[in-house]
Amino acid sequence: MLLIQRKTGAERVSECAHQPEFRLAHRLPYRELAQLTPVNPSRNLNMRHDVGMNSPTTSTGRPLSGIRVLDLSRVLAGPHCTRMLADLGADVIKIEPPAGDLTRFATPRRNGISSYFVQQNVGKRNVSIDLATPEGVEIMLGLVDHADVLVENYRPGVMDRLGLGPETLRARNPRLIFTSISGYGQTGPWVHRRAYAPVVEAETGIVASQSNARDGELAKDPHSHADVYTSLEATVAILAALYQRDSSGAGQQLDVSMAETMLYANEHLHDVLWEGEDNPHWIRSFQPGDYLVLTVANGESLVVSGHPAERGTFEFFIAAIGQPELVDDPRFVDVATRMANYGDLSQIIREFAANVPDADTFEKIFSQHQLAVGRVRQPGELTETEWAAERGAVVEIDDRSGGTIRVPNVPWRFSDAPDVAVSGVPKFRGEDNRSVLGELLGYEDDRLDQLESAGILSSRVPKQ
Known about the structure:
By secondary structure, the chain is an alpha/beta fold. It has helices at about 10-15, 20-25, 75-85, 115-120, 135-145, 160, 165-170, 195-205, 205-210, 225-250, 260-265, 270-275, 315-320, 335-340, 340-355, 360-365, 385-390, 435-440, 445-455, and strands at about 70, 90-95, 110, 115, 125-130, 150, 175-180, 250-255, 295, 300-305, 370-375, 395-400, 405-410.
């Protein structure tokens, strides 16, 4: 008897999903499905994770291969978001104004290439359009027809005034995910306030929190937390919208604000919002600002993760320093007394650390008692360690003048997409005008020449 095994629908979909043609078609925008051509199934997708400056910007082996992103953002929050999308395999086209992205003029810089610009924009194609002109807007509208995602971080209302607002663009391409990043959002009483990361960090309590750790001295640290955190939240929202589009068939508008991001990402805001009594026998919201920075005999400094006054953690500390009798010291019998005498407890631990010869010895002792230890390093020191070399934490990017620029690599490791990495080359402003507009809009050389002569398209590419 011949037995015929019937496959379920899920099994058939799963079987199809392993075919390259299926994967690519599943991700292409609706306007390009008709143009789909078969992918060579013999193509080797097992590329190394540590691909460097000569690797392709995208490949069908990356998770976002087939997704196209128009990047109208500048400086940091938007560019870092779209750089992540490029690292994940999306075809990101940076739309740069004739004046150029501000970060192009940052230093250090070599051959017109700023290392700041490289870190946030490598791997993207570059087109420079004057969107203040009707012809520039027409070009932009044509590009939108071929896009899955648009990211912009202009002040609210600017895209509408250009004729490129979300309603206009989504009416033209219903599958478009239109992403706006701003200081305080696209609605509300603060919609027109100027906002940059330091300003938002001041408004959302970050500067005040940092001053509390400096005994009240108000000062801004050197990092743009609001920009970077918002770029992460925007990326998550875009990925979620792409996933939702698979079932709904429609794109949507995403409104991501830096201020709400800094509230959302503040793991201690719940404590400020708490109303009512609190149990004095527990450390409130962990209080990591109290964690000790200790110095050992050779001058190295370390941070120990854990509050020395916390229940359980206190016992780890006194065991590590070899003074278990402190458990009966009346100053340290419970959390409340330990907090009241925290200066004394800290000093005992500091004195122990000062007599430990070096950081390795200190970490060995404390790790035996369930306590994690990290060395206080200057920025960049970690990149020179054996750990960084083995993990490929830094990559070398072509500086377009025969040398390289070192930048951080992606933090992700995909088992089925080993070629996910920071890769490609940094582009000069307008370097891809002709290739992109020829490829996507079918512009011939004569038309491109006219647009360049009229200043609608421009470029700044060094002569070879």
